[in-house]
Amino acid sequence: MGFFSCGGTRNHAVLLTATLILTISIFLLAILYSSVGHAGASGYLAAMALVGLAPDEMKPTALVLNIFVGCIGAFRFAKAG
């Protein structure tokens, strides 16, 4: 069972802190990976694993983030000419 699906055994402050850490790390990973032309799925998976997200939740989340960041990169590349 993952950190976010542990059914109330953690207090609200710990959950909020983990969510904030995950959000910031995914944002930074997206910036770093996209700066070299990648979408960053491996980084998103690592960040989610570090906060204890369940693998069944990690896979589709990383896929959506990867597609989103990849589309932004493709759009910016096409726009630049």
The total of beta strands comes to 0
* Radius of gyration computed on alpha carbons: 15 Å
What structural class is derived from the secondary structure elements? mainly alpha
Residue runs with pLDDT of under 50 for 5 or more positions: none
- The overall pLDDT average reads 88
Largest sheet: none
State the order of secondary-structure elements, H for helix, E for strand.
HHH
Query: Ends: how far apart?
Result: 47 Å
Describe the structure in brief.
This protein is mainly α.
Structure report:
73% of the residues lie in helices and 0% in strands. The protein has 3 helices and no strands. It has helices at 12-34, 41-50, 55-80. Helix 1 (12-34) packs antiparallel against helix 2 and helix 2 (41-50) packs antiparallel against helix 3. The radius of gyration is 15 Å and the shape is elongated. The protein starts with 11 loop residues before the first helix and ends with a helix. The relative contact order is 0.16.
What is the strand and helix layout of this fold?
Layout: H1 12-34, H2 41-50, H3 55-80
